[in-house]
């Protein structure tokens, strides 16, 4: 899928960053290619893709553009501070779809087969001998980025900016759409009994919205504008409300997505066009719907038009938080914004958000369940169909694998 002016379909979260060359390898074990591909097809009854090779760890490999295959995936050895997780719920992100369609995202290029997926939760299968806070059988949400813990960013607590970050399904790092993964125990967060594994997987996209709200200082004193009602726009809406924002207006080009935004608590919505020349009149409509100054605008699309709208709609002395990255480069009226002291903040992934997200879901302050619109099993047929459904957009918001 190409990036389009229609910003409803995909907001690619900022999952690209310089990373070191750490990867796993294909391992065929005792099953030959014919067996593996036969297992991957599944059946009309939704049988497991494991087939007769129950000992194999299978994963969804991105082989080339528009080509995914279920193949064996060899895990690294379990370290003393690691846990082995049986994956149970994995969501499809816009970045996954972009790799699937184009084999690249920004400067990150898939040069060899890569396991896809990073929004995930599962059950602890095995623990390293130094792990004390988890036990076999615990349900956990996995934070997908492993930082170096030694650089200046990590030491300052801003580990999301680590130059050596190893992030699931950001090439060349393999992802988590597999039967099992090995992951640092410190990045596995135990889920309470009232939080499902699907909700655990949703902590990943929700973390983006939570981090954005923290960066911009959203709270009871801030009226919020959200540009874009795709998955990231919707979780940002929910996060802003959970942080106490008394009024949230959501803007998009798709009326169906705006209906979802209203169902999730948006006070007002504005349906706009994709034409740059309509910015001025649309800003007036936004301001009328807000019925107050816009203190913070979250641009969850990252397009030239959405940023132009954000900068013009936000009050003098307010903040524009760039969350989406639809356009790598754009022409925007910075001088006029600077003259009004409108601050522009960048958002890159998230940091220290997972426990808060779990607490918000557990307490009922945020309900991510309505965002999961499509569910699939883990067979060759299901994996291909799920990615195609996600790529088409339409009614699909979050597509989830149940493994």
CATH architecture classification name of the largest domain:
Alpha-Beta Complex
- CATH topology name of the largest domain, in short, is Quinone Oxidoreductase, Chain A, domain 1
Helix content: 25-40%
What is the multimeric organization of the chains shown? single chain
Based on secondary structure, the structural category is alpha/beta
Cα Rg: 21 Å
Tell me the major beta sheet.
Answer: 7 strands, mixed
Q: What is the assigned CATH homologous superfamily of the largest domain?
A: Medium-chain alcohol dehydrogenases, catalytic domain
Strand content: 15-25%
CATH class of the largest domain: Alpha Beta
Number of individual domains: 2
How many alpha or pi helices?
12
The count of β-strands is 20
Distance between the termini: 26 Å
Quick one: overall form?
globular
Low-confidence stretches: 1-54
């Amino acid at each position: 899928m190409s990036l389009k002016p229609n910003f409803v379909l995909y907001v690619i979260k900022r999952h690209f960053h310089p990373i070191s060359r750490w990867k796993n390898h294909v391992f065929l074990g005792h099953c030959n290619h014919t067996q593996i591909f036969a297992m991957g097809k599944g059946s009309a009854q939704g049988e497991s893709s494991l087939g007769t090779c129950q000992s194999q760890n299978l994963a969804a490999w991105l082989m080339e553009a528009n080509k995914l295959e279920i193949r064996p995936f060899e895990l690294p050895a379990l370290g003393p501070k690691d846990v082995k997780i049986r994956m149970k719920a994995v969501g499809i992100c816009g970045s996954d779809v972009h790799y699937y369609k184009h084999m690249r995202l920004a400067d990150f290029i898939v040069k060899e087969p890569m396991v896809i997926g990073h929004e995930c939760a599962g059950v602890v299968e095995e623990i390293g001998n130094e792990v004390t806070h988890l036990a076999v059988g615990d349900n956990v949400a996995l934070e997908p980025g492993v930082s170096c813990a030694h650089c200046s960013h990590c030491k300052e607590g801003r580990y999301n900016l680590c130059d050596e970050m190893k992030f699931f399904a950001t090439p060349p790092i393999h992802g988590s759409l597999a039967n099992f993964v090995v992951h640092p125990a410190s990045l596995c967060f135990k889920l309470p009994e009232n939080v499902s594994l699907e909700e655990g997987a949703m902590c990943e996209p929700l973390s983006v919205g939570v981090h954005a709200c923290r960066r911009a200082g959203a709270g009871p004193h801030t009226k919020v504008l959200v540009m874009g009602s795709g998955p990231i726009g919707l979780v940002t809406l929910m996060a802003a409300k959970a942080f106490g924002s008394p009024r949230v207006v959501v803007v998009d080009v798709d009326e169906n997505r705006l209906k979802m935004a209203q169902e999730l608590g948006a006070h007002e919505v504005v349906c706009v066009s994709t034409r740059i020349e309509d910015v001025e009149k649309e800003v007036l409509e936004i301001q009328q719907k807000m019925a107050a100054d816009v203190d913070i605008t979250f641009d969850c699309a990252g397009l030239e038009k959405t940023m132009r709208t954000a900068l013009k709609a936000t009050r003098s002395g307010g903040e524009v938080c760039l969350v989406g990255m639809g356009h790598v480069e754009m022409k925007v009226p910075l001088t006029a914004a600077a003259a009004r002291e409108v601050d522009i903040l960048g958002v890159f992934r998230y940091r220290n958000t997972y426990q808060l997200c779990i607490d918000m879901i557990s307490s009922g302050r945020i309900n991510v369940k309505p965002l999961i619109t499509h569910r699939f099993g883990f067979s060759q047929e299901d994996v291909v169909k799920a990615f195609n459904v996600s790529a088409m957009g339409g009614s699909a918001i979050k597509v989830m694998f149940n493994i």
